[in-house]
Amino acid sequence: MSITLTTAESGQNLIIDSVDVALQGKIRVPGDKSISHRALILGAIASGETTIEGLLLGEDPRSTASCFASMGVEISQLSTEQVIINGLGLANLSEPSDLLNAGNSGTTMRLMLGILAGQAGKFFTVTGDSSLRSRPMSRVVKPLQQMGAQIWGRKDNSLAPLAVSGQSLRPIEYHSPIASAQVKSCLLLAGLGIEGRTTVIEPRLSRDHSERMLQAFGANIERDFLANRVTIIGPTSLTGQKVIVPGDISSAAFWLVAAAIVEGSELVIENVGINPTRTGILEVLQEMGANIRLENQRIVTGEPVGDIRIKSSPLRGCEISGAIIPRLIDEIPILAVAATFAQGTTIIRDAQELRVKESDRLAVMAKELTKMGAQVLELPDGLEITGPTHLVGTDVESYGDHRITMSLAIAALAAQKTTTIRGAEAATISYPNFVTTLQKVCGIIL
Ligand code: S3P
Fold first, then answer.
1. Considering only Cβ atoms within 10 Å of each terminal Cβ, which end of the chain, N or C, has fewer?
2. Distance (Å, rounded) from C-alpha 145 to C-alpha 183?
3. Do residues 71 and 12 both lie within one domain?
4. Which residues line ligand 1 (CB under 6 A)?
5. Do 258 and 277 belong together in one domain?
6. Do 7 and 109 lie in a common domain?
7. For residue 285, how far is its CA from the centre of ligand 1 (angstroms)?
8. Domain count, the chain
9. pTM listed for this prediction
10. Cα 123 versus chain centre, distance
11. CA 75 – ligand 1 centroid, Å
C-alpha cells in the first residue's frame, strides 16, 4: 500500500492505495478549530496578556490572527507550544488601512462582524476566498442590523466583501431560525460592549465554546439550558487568560471512522475535546455498533477532555436527524463514509445547513462517493446511503473543502484499488499534518 502527496497544476493530489494493514497506535489530533478562533479573538479584545497552548496552526485560525493583527493587536508567532497575545481591550482596536481577509473561514468572518459592528466611528471592509464570498452572511447581518449595525454588501448585504461602518449598538433578544454557534457567538460578541441584555435563543443547542470562554474571561453570561437561551449582560470588559486548547473531535472523527471500518484496527486518540455539544459523532458511531471507550476524562480550562479508544467492528445503518445534527454538523461527510460500510440503510435528515458550508457537502459527498461505487441518494436536507458496498478507488475532487478531502481519504483507505483526491491541499485549513498522521497510522512511517 502507499500514500503519496504530489504537486499538480492546480494544487496537490493525494494518491491512496487501499490499506492492507490494520490501523494501530496512539495519536493526537491538532487543536480544536472553534476553540482556537475564540481564544485568539477573546485574547485580542481582552485587556492584558492571554496565552494559548495547543492552538491549531491551520489556515483558518491564521486568518483570524492576521485580521486582529491588522487591527493593531500584538500576537506572537503562532505555535502549538505557546502563543502570547497582548490584548488591546474592545474599544482600542485600530481601523485597518486595508481589507480584513478571513480566507476560507466562516467563523472568522461571522464572529469578527459582531465585534466590528460596534466599533463606533471606525470603518472596515471584510472579505474572504471565493468559497467564503458565496456563503450567506445575512444570518449575522440581519440581527446585527436590528442592533443598529450598518453593513453593506452584494445581494441585499448578504455576501462578502462587506463594508462595516461601526456604530453604537443596542441590545436585542434574537430568536435565531437556525442552530448556529457562529450566529450566537457573533451576537454575544456584539453585546459585550453595550449596556443591557443581549439574548440569543436557538431552536437547538449549538456548540457552546463561546459561552464557556466568555465566562472564563470575565463576561457576565446567563444561560437557560432548557430553553437554549443565552444572555450576555453588558458592558463587560474581558481580562486575558491562559487557554489550553484540546484536540479537535472533528479531526479525531476521521480516525474514529477509519479504525471502525478497517478490520483489526485499534487506535487511541489522546487529549480530545469532548464537550457534549460536539460529541454527537460518538453517540452515532456507538449506535452503529462501533466499539468506543472514553478514558482519562478531565476538565481543562473549562472544557471536557478525554482520550478515545476505538476498535474495528461491523457497523449497521441508522437514522441521524433532529437535535443531534448541530452536535455533529461537521462530521456528516465522514459519517457518510462510515454508512457506505454499514449493513443496511443510513438516513441523514435535517442537515440542510451542509449546503452552505465550505462546499455543498450533501451534493459533493453524494457525487464523489457515487463515483467510488457507493449507493447514495441525495435528499433536500440529507443523504440516504445503503450499504455495505465495496468502494473502488477512482479520481475524486475535494471542491477545496478540507472535510471533503479527509473524508474521501478515509474512504480511499478502505476502498479497493487506487484513489486520487484532487485539491488535497485543502486539508491544511483544519489539519495541517493530516497526511503524515495517515501514513503513521498505516505504518508507512514511524
Ligand atoms: C463553528 C460552528 C459551526 C461549524 C463550523 C465552526 C464555530 O458552524 O460548522 O465549522 O466555530 O462556531 P455554524 O455555526 O454555522 O453551524
1. C
2. 13
3. no
4. 34, 37, 107, 180-182, 185, 206-207, 329-330, 353
5. yes
6. no
7. 21
8. 2
9. 0.98
10. 28
11. 24
